[in-house]
């Protein structure tokens, strides 16, 4: 006896499974993290390959760095706040738990007195991020990453033209 496999009738379409909130949040974080590292690389070294750690000042390849939070990433209100996230070497971020004393000093140098208190206060706000919010953040930061890369390409082309002359 031959068993036949049940087939779905051709007029019934399979439902497309929507990604979970966790998946979308991960994608949004990935795009945001890449943006932060590229932003800081351009500001600190003028390249897209090397960056300075905000806390220890070491110059490293961008691939060996994290986007480290001053206020923990468990708070949605500050999770995607660009002032709260800066490039850190993995040693400072992971083994020194963010090297927060020096991080605080550098934040104040970068953004001015009171930024640390402002971010800590903001973290206490209850913020719910929907899947749509997270998708919008992902798309926005992907565009920003492309913009930074394009900006760097224009700069290198301009510098290359002036060196040839």
Task: Tell me what you see in this structure.
This protein is mainly alpha-helical and 165 residues long. It has one domain (24-156). 54% of the residues lie in helices and 10% in strands. The chain is built from six helices and four strands, in the order αβββαβαααα. The protein has helices at residues 21-44, 76-79, 90-95, 100-111, 115-123, 131-164, and strands at residues 50-52, 59-61, 65-69, 85-89. It has a two-stranded antiparallel ribbon with strand order 1-2. It has a two-stranded antiparallel sheet with strand order 3-4. Strand 1 and strand 2 (59-61) form a beta hairpin. Helix 1 packs parallel to helix 6 (131-164). The longest helix has 34 residues, at 131-164. The model has no long low-confidence stretch (mean pLDDT 90). Pfam families: NinG. This is Putative lambda recombination protein. InterPro entries: Phage_lambda_NinG.
Task: Provide keyphrases for this structure.
6 helices, two-stranded antiparallel sheet, 4 strands, mainly alpha
* Oligomer category: single chain
Poorly predicted segments: none
Strand order of the largest sheet: 1-2
Largest sheet: 2 strands, antiparallel
In short:
InterPro entries: Phage_lambda_NinG (IPR008713). With 165 residues, this protein is mainly alpha-helical. Helices cover 54% and strands 10% of the residues.
């Amino acid at each position: 006896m031959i068993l036949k496999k049940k087939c779905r009738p051709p007029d019934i379409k399979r439902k497309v499974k929507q990604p979970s909130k966790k998946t979308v949040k991960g994608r949004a974080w990935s795009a945001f993290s890449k943006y932060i590292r590229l932003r800081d690389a351009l500001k600190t070294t003028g390249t897209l390959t090397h960056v300075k750690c905000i806390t220890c000042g070491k110059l490293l390849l961008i691939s060996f760095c994290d986007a480290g939070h001053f206020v923990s990433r468990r708070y949605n209100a500050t999770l995607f706040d660009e002032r709260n996230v800066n490039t850190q070497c993995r040693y400072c971020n992971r083994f020194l738990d963010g090297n927060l004393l020096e991080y605080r000093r550098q934040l104040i140098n970068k953004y001015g007195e009171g930024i640390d208190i402002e971010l800590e206060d903001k973290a206490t706000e209850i913020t719910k991020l929907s899947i749509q919010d997270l998708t919008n953040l992902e798309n926005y930061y992907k565009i920003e990453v492309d913009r930074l890369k394009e900006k760097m390409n224009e700069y290198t082309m301009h510098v290359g033209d002036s060196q040839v002359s």
